[in-house]
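Tutorial handout. Part one gives the primary structure; part two gives the three-dimensional structure as tokens.
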Amino acid sequence: MKVVLQAIIGSISIHVIYLVVMMLVGYIKTKNYKPDIESAWDKVETLQNEVVFVGVTPPHFNVLSFLGLSVICGIVILSYEKLMN
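Part two.
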């Protein structure tokens, strides 16, 4: 049971680290963005009237990602324990 708990904690921590890193990358890219207004006039196009929302990940993907990473963490923990003993 100890290995299962450690694997779940490892999976949660890896997911949190991934989320924080992605937010930091987005923040840094947003802060450093400098639009080139002069060359934008050369690429004038008509604007669209509709907005399309795509790219939404299904909710079961998050559960599968969490479970898969928990299994991988469990395998790594068990392998590490066997190597040390």
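Part three, for discussion. DSSP finds three helices and no strands in the chain. The helical segments are 2-32, 37-40, 59-84.
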